[in-house]
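Table 4 source record.
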Amino acid sequence: MSAVGYTKAGRRPRIGDYLRDAALYLIIFIFFLPVLWIILTSIRPNMEINTRPPIWIPRELTLDSYKILLGWPTPEGAFGLGSNIPFGQYARNSIIIATVSTLFSLTFGTLAGYAFARFAFKGKNGVFLGMMLARAVPGIALSLPLFVLYARLGLSDSILGMIITYVALNVPFTAWLMDGFFRAIPAELDEAALIDGCSRWSAFLRVDLPLALPGAAASGIFAFLTAWNEFALANVITRTPASRTFPPALYEFTGQFVSDWRGMCAMSVMMLIPAIIFVALVQRQLMTGLTSGAMKG
């Protein structure tokens, strides 16, 4: 007797199920196609990049762009502007700025979300609304005021200035997301902990925070990716390799007469690796957090 496949609902799959799956795979492929094209461009010869009509499948694969970017020996005559770009410095700046700003954003945003969810104080709604409206301001609109302010405070073109910028950018969203998670936790758990002798701080650390870890994971991913991929503010505030991150560094592959598209794609691929690793490590917590937040909303 042949085995017959069944769906999770306990019924046989229909034609509509197959069409839905095919449509989903097609959508995923469409979204992944630009990433695939960037990867292929980074490993194809320069002569194939600007050809018309385009060559979809590279006839030859080469890692010269990555070797030039990392300072490794390359074949004689290999073209690339990556040798003039301090890739290691940009990687160090991006990792430090994204990691530190994410930690501070999570700390301040979690405490703010807990305060909004558990305490009643004067002006609570106004403060919360003000934070949300501040987050809605486009980053490009803040670039000029921040540039003038940082120039006067001595924070322009510094890692500390970038960290402060991204913390201020991410705290409102983190506070909003964590507020939803803390509201989903019954307040009776806090009251039981207080009756058992816990202080308010101890109840937060031992009861509320462990239950809100999925929200913290989701907030951390969004905060990290925001700091890792942000371009507008980083392009204005940073001017030298001392504090410049990956996104504005990509512009250095464009020269006055020639552009190194292959090198730019190689750095883009290198940018993707830490972000993919970070998301993969907390993927389960992210899905749990987004599902819980959607159910509450």
